[in-house]
Amino acid sequence: MVINERSSRIMNSQTILFIELVSVFIGISLFLWLLVQILLQRKLLGKYLAKHKEFNKDDNVFDKVERFLPSVASNDADSIERKFYSAGLYESKYAHLYMPVKYLSAAIGSGIIYLLLGKDSSMTTQVALMCIWLVVCISIPDAILSSRKKALEEKLSGQLPYLLDLLAMCVHTGMTIESSLSYLAKEMQGFDKDLAHMIARTNDRANIVGLEPALDELYVRVPTNEMRSFVMTLKQSLHYGSSIYEILNTLAADIRSVRLLSLEEKVGKLAAKMSVPLILFIMIPVVILIAAPGVMRMMTGVY
């Protein structure tokens, strides 16, 4: 009886220790993943903005800290609105409530965890669970917005060849680029609202600041290779006055070929990716089933 009670205590302590270690590992993994995503995004935008001298070399320390502050901790309303806009949420009148709702949810969830666990668990377990909930509340909403942004960029890049074909047809009929963009923005409302909104936004900005700055802003909003080719093609046509009809048709065909090659590459990688479930769900459980009896005997002191 004493041996069984002692072994049960050992098992409980080891289970709690295992849960705490897993909680710390999950929290650190989420933080590192979020940090890597932020650094990759800033590196991509930095390469483009450096060409236009957006970064001032005379910035003081506070400006540098503010610029490299992670977006999850930023309270800037403009940056939050840009984040919502990039995710396809164009009506962002409640964007100023985004950060307060995140931190309020983290505080309420931590209080609920404390009330539910109470005195039945150790302080270390409560702190570990609160830390996990805090990381989830802070990182998951940003991860959702980031995934929506990537999906929107992929969608716009996929629809870009069709836009180039329509734009080439409009130009071939004698319309200017500005009038073609205005016409397509109205006509495509019933087909693709995101693409129509992108064209309308570019056309509105072109009427205010000019077509070239509007195209630069378009690439900042959708930083993909296809959009870069589209922007560079239009800018070269504006600079040198070359015929844009054949160039747009050629660019549309090239983008389709590149996307087809990327799709074939993904299909070719499926064979290697299928081995991952085989290892995770078959080989590892077999090893656990073989080693578990001996490990349990060692933990209970039975040899």
Automatic annotation (TrEMBL):
Organism: Aliivibrio fischeri
Protein name: Type II secretion system F family protein
Membrane topology, record value: Multi-pass membrane protein
Entry keyword annotation includes NAD: no
Pfam (any one): T2SSF
Type II secretion system protein GspF domain sequence ranges: 164-290
Record's signal peptide: none
Subcellular location: Cell membrane
Residues passing through the membrane, by range: 16-40, 97-117, 123-145, 276-296
GO cellular component terms attached to this protein's record: plasma membrane
Major subcellular site: membrane
Keyword list, A-Z: Cell membrane, Membrane, Transmembrane, Transmembrane helix
Domain of life: Bacteria
